């Protein structure tokens, strides 16, 4: 256990956390460490170890772990408790099919309400994606780009569901962007998407988004097939 505590301390830090900030601070530190790979898939995260590390009770730790489980970053395993989830599961293609349904509806609701500032922000993310080479940053910028275009949707629960799925994709992109052939090739779709949104061409934008997501699903399907063949 001492070795595990040293590992967690080196990854997460060990300074005491103010009680009123404990849940959010612990959640963010764990999320960041999972996303950038410092806590690899299969790592067990025990409440008592984390509580001791941060000098808090188990309650904020338990809540932080629940939030990360809801984001598909953790899963609960019998006899091990919360563990860091695999980078991608066999249901990844189904996830993209679900994203098509959720995100096209969010785009449909959002486009009529987008203003010039929203469009400029989205174009700014595209410009950064064109120049960025760090996979971690590409994943983050991709999520922010999409959420900007959906941000004016009226259904807030829909947006929360989409952000969960985008968080999952962000994590996967951080590790497998080059191997899967994603990255700069997607910018043509992003440009076409924001152009259609700017011109209030809702159906055209939805068509671009469907193509964009379906292409990603096909890429993931090929990736999973190649992994299964190894």
UniProtKB/TrEMBL annotation:
One MF term in GO for this entry?
DNA-binding transcription factor activity
Residues forming coiled coils = none
Q: What domain of life does the UniProt record list for this protein's source?
A: Bacteria
Keyword DNA-binding found: yes
Family annotation (Pfam families): FCD, GntR
Going by the UniProt record, its keywords in alphabetical order are: DNA-binding, Transcription, Transcription regulation
This protein's record includes keyword Cell membrane: no
- Record-given protein name: GntR family transcriptional regulator
């Amino acid at each position: 256990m001492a070795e595990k505590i040293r590992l967690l301390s080196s990854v997460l830090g060990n300074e005491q956390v103010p009680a009123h900030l404990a849940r959010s601070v612990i959640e963010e530190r764990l999320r960041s460490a999972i996303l950038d790979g410092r806590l690899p898939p299969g790592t067990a995260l025990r409440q008592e170890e984390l509580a001791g590390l941060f000098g808090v009770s188990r309650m904020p730790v338990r809540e932080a772990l629940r939030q990360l489980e809801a984001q598909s970053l953790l899963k609960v395993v019998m006899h091990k408790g919360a563990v860091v989830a695999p980078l991608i599961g066999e249901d990844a293609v189904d996830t993209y099919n679900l994203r098509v349904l959720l995100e096209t509806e969010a785009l449909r609701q959002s486009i009529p309400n987008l203003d010039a500032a929203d469009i400029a922000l989205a174009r700014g993310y595209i410009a950064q994606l064109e120049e960025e080479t760090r996979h971690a940053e590409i994943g983050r910028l991709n999520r922010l780009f999409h959420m900007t275009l959906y941000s004016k949707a009226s259904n807030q629960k829909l947006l929360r569901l989409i952000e969960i799925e985008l968080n999952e994709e962000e994590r996967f992109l951080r590790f497998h962007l080059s191997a899967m052939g994603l990255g700069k090739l997607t910018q043509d779709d992003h440009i076409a998407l924001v152009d259609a949104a700017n011109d209030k061409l809702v159906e055209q934008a939805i068509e671009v988004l469907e193509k964009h997501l379906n292409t990603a699903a096909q890429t993931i399907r090929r990736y999973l097939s190649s992994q299964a063949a190894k």
